User: What shape does this take?
Amino acid sequence: MKGSIAVIAGDGIGPEIMKSAVAVLDVVNKKFGHEFATTEALASSAAYDKYGVHLPPETIATCEKSDAILFGAVGGPVNDQESPRWKDAEKNVILGLRKHFDLFANLRPLKVWPGTEVFSTLRPEFITGMDVLIVRELVSGIYFGARERFEQNGKPAARDTSVYAWDEIERALRVGFEAAMMRKKRLTVVDKANVLETSRLWREVAREVAKDFPEVQMEFMFVDNAAMQLARAPLAFDVIVTENMFGDILSDLGGAIVGSLGLLPSASLNGKKFGLYEPSHGSAPDIAGKGVANPTAQILSLALLLRYTYGLEKEAAAIESAIQSAWKAGEKTRDLGGTLSTEEFTTAVVKCLA
Ligand code: IPM
Ligand code: MG
Assistant: This one.
């Protein structure tokens, strides 16, 4: 198969872990006889230095010419957030790309891989075999509603608006139901329907969509309870589908439960199989440039890209099992208790895959 992938390495550890993923892609090309080409595009600080903006039209154009975006990480040092180079970098780049490409379905798999149970905040018996998929609506709700500052009783007040249209809810829910059909056929719709009107609409839509998926066992859960249940008994979940804001919060909670942030990939898809694939972790400026970052989430994001954009299940699974084989052979980066550098671990994965 032929294809073109836009590569946005971004800030901090982004370029280091992206190098690993591109090395793995080279092996996939050779082993499976594909011709996937990559084109690098600038975003965040690198784009700011060259063009004066975080998400330049040149980068959008490169992405538009590609089948998918493999994305590293963006964001600057915590203490430097107010400088123009970093101010709103994450928001401008990530939200900008999500909106521009209408990436409404954010898939965040929370998987505990064999041997990584010790990194969880929970005892092994609660998380061994954990395999939850969060489907987060990504281009609407309170993230994209009107924001306002005004005055009330002579003092500043602020307002953020959450708007959801039927179709926006329906397409996100369908992704959740379809994913459930390929898994354990269980779907938890998370909302705050005891308070919010948008949540009540989510429930109405869910009941309609559920008619098309009679095999899926659907349940509703309030978001506060869902947070508690996820921390209490994560093995009880299969697919969780929810609005933008709740999905943001629950996926970080899920990340803590899985343990190592370095292991979590994500996919953000539109309706045409175009997607942005990125690690769930950030740019980790504190360890940037040291060559010690764990590239696993970035490599697993590449696996998701092959699976969802190109439908290459065999290739995706081969990458996932190469990582597991490397671990089994004791090849681990420092965050997982090993001694390997980013590059050494990548070499180990490449060997297992080749
Ligand atoms: C995420 C991040 C983003 C979000 C930020 C960086 C805008 O937290 O992808 O979860 O809130 O969606
Ligand atoms: Mg988040």
Notes: Residues 117-259 form a domain with the Isopropylmalate Dehydrogenase fold (CATH 3.40.718.10). The chain has a mean pLDDT of 96. Residues 14-32 form the longest helix (19 residues). Residues 136 and 330 are 34 Å apart (CA to CA).
